[in-house]
């Protein structure tokens, strides 16, 4: 039998780091009569299993490429006894050929990880502005990988509680594979400072602006402005950390306000607002703050009715910020627009076959106060600018709303005549829209519809008004607002997943945890946007969570410091192909590549009320 030739390797020494022990190459030089190590010339080439100074050696991929003969050998580091008592131990390497039978037996005991969902998410965020900004700001101590791993956990498990994260990390392939205990997660959240978050947002917007500048002049860039709220069980929050919950359940509430690129799904800004601050009151500070974060000033903010007010329109003009805003139809100004153009809107000539509804647009003048302090004794100086008013009328919506109201009022009549007890909402609806005559004993004698009140309630049914300072095309304005709605749906699903509860205990961890939740929400929006563009390729599932559930069938085995993917066939392969995600190779990466051998330091107005009550009553009617 031919004698095995031993590899020729450079000198090495071990370096202990917490629970781990690594082998590093080094160079020495003579300096002032002493042999000293040359700074910057050490290089990590291996890790010793078990964290001791002796044991099986696992080489890095880079070192194996330099010494391919090691790939056919098992290497063990052993120690010699000191030559004399109290002397230093010396170490040597032992090389043995692979025992394929042993390897085969070990492979059946290899740890299996759920890998499909995180494999897809890795490719969704890869090279995105989000990933670039995270790496740029949080790379020390691998915080960027830990933050993404925690964000995956939040998104895939619909929770912000870290209690089960360690178990999740043991069973799922993650950017940072080492399980983190709740205390370690808290330390990581505490390490995320306000300065870190500011740097991240600025870097994020630098990267986003690079992409958006490519399309300058060809298409408008629209940012969805929306917010979602979370209640928290924390008892140690300061007044600034959260307001009072509007639902009066004695929990503190935090509102998470975000700006999201509607086309790419990339969130480019967020901030926390007290829970008792209405959306309408948050616009002024937001407009000031986005300047500091470097947000694209040419982008158009698209907001829902919750952000509309005359004062906020003034603020957009004062800040020279463009907007598309959903105008509340219950206001007197909106009703004046509808009254003036009702004949044109409900006529056949205004019908748009693309939008499948009636459309009428006008350009009018908007007067707003000058945005500077003045010594004028009377009225502040005003300026004027053009504003685009786009009015939409959908006859089908008006018909459905009229039919639902008819059913609800008919049911109310029957219940009143039968003496049934009404709920508070039903009683208020009856008082508003019915004329009820009673006898001396309180029995209903006559019940008639209040035609004037009903006509007033249905006056704006089917109408929608969008205001914009810059978009003159009603189709473009309508599309921009519809895309905003898709973002709002994502927020609603995310809030529903969390059941409106945000688990945090103290102020020191709250800011970092909210930041990680922002990253989780960003990942969810990026995936939702990516999947929406792939629907034409016949995705077998509509919801993103259904897709992720199917992808859990893709497994990877952790064996000999590598991950080996199992066969990917059938619907799982079709899903990856439809999402334009590459099929993983047999051996994808080593843990050393994933975790960098660095320090492991853990650091209701009346109309809205009536509408909701009517919907509930129609649902009851249909069920019966």
TrEMBL record:
The GO molecular function terms of this record are: DNA binding; transposase activity
**Span of domain Transposase IS4-like:** 221-346
Give GO BP annotations, semicolon-separated.
DNA transposition
Q: Which InterPro entries is this protein grouped with?
A: Transposase_11
Q: Which domain of life is it from?
A: Bacteria
One family name in Pfam for this protein: DDE_Tnp_1
Q: What is this protein called?
A: Transposase
Native organism is: Candidatus Anaerobiospirillum merdipullorum
**Mind giving the lineage of the organism this protein is from?**
Bacteria, Pseudomonadati, Pseudomonadota, Gammaproteobacteria, Aeromonadales
């Amino acid at each position: 039998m031919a004698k095995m030739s031993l590899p020729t390797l450079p000198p090495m020494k071990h370096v202990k780091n917490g629970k781990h022990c690594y082998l590093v190459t080094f160079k020495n030089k003579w300096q002032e009569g002493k042999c000293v190590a040359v700074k910057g010339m050490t290089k990590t080439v291996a890790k010793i299993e078990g964290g001791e100074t002796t044991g099986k050696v696992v080489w890095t991929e880079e070192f194996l490429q330099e010494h391919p003969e090691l790939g056919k050998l098992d290497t063990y580091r052993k120690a010699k006894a000191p030559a004399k008592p109290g002397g230093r131990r010396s170490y040597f390497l032992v090389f043995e050929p692979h025992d394929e039978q042993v390897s085969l037996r070990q492979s059946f005991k290899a740890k299996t990880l759920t890998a499909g969902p995180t494999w897809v998410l890795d490719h969704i965020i890869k090279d995105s502005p989000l990933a670039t900004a995270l790496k740029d700001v949080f790379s020390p101590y691998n915080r960027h990988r830990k933050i993404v791993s925690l964000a995956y956990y939040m998104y895939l498990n619909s929770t912000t509680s870290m209690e089960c994260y360690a178990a999740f990390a043991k069973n799922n392939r993650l950017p940072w594979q080492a399980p983190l205990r709740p205390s370690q997660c808290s330390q990581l959240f505490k390490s995320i400072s306000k300065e870190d978050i500011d740097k991240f947002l600025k870097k994020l917007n630098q990267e986003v602006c690079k992409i958006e500048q490519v399309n300058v002049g060809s298409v408008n860039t629209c940012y969805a402005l929306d917010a979602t709220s979370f209640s928290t069980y924390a008892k140690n929050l300061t007044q600034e950390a959260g307001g009072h919950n509007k639902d009066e359940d004695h929990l503190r509430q935090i509102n998470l306000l975000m700006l999201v690129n509607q086309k790419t799904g990339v969130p480019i800004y967020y901030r926390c607002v007290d829970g008792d601050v209405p959306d309408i009151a948050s616009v002024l500070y937001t407009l000031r703050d986005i300047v500091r974060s470097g947000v694209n000033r040419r982008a158009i903010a698209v907001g829902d009715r919750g952000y509309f007010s005359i004062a906020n329109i003034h603020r957009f003009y004062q800040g020279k910020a463009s907007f598309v805003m959903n105008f509340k139809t219950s206001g007197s100004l909106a009703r004046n627009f509808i009254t003036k153009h009702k004949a044109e809107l409900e006529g056949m000539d205004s019908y748009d076959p693309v939008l499948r509804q009636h459309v009428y647009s006008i350009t009018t003048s908007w007067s707003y106060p000058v945005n500077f302090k003045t010594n004028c004794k009377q009225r502040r100086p005003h300026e004027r600018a053009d504003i685009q008013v786009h009015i939409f009328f959908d006859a089908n919506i008006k018909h459905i709303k009229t039919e639902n109201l008819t059913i609800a009022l008919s049911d109310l009549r029957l219940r009143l005549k039968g003496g049934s007890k009404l709920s508070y909402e039903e009683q208020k609806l009856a008082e508003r829209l019915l004329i009820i005559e009673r006898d001396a004993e309180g029995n209903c004698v006559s019940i008639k519809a209040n035609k004037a009140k009903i006509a007033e309630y249905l006056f704006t049914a089917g109408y929608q008004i969008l205001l914009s300072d810059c978009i003159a095309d009603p189709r473009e304005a309508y599309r921009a607002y519809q895309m905003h709605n898709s973002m709002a749906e994502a927020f609603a699903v995310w809030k529903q997943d969390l059941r409106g509860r945000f688990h945090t205990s103290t102020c020191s961890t709250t800011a970092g945890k909210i930041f990680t939740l922002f990253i989780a929400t960003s990942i969810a929006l990026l995936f939702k946007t990516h999947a929406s563009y792939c629907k034409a390729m016949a995705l077998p599932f509509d919801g993103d969570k259904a897709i992720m559930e199917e992808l859990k069938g893709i497994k990877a085995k952790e064996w000999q410091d590598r991950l080996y993917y199992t066969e990917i066939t059938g619907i799982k392969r079709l899903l990856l192909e439809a999402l334009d995600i590459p099929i993983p190779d047999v051996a994808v990466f080593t843990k050393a590549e994933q975790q960098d051998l660095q320090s492991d330091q853990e650091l209701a107005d009346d109309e809205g009320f009536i509408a909701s009550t009517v919907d509930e009553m129609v649902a009851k009617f249909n069920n019966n």
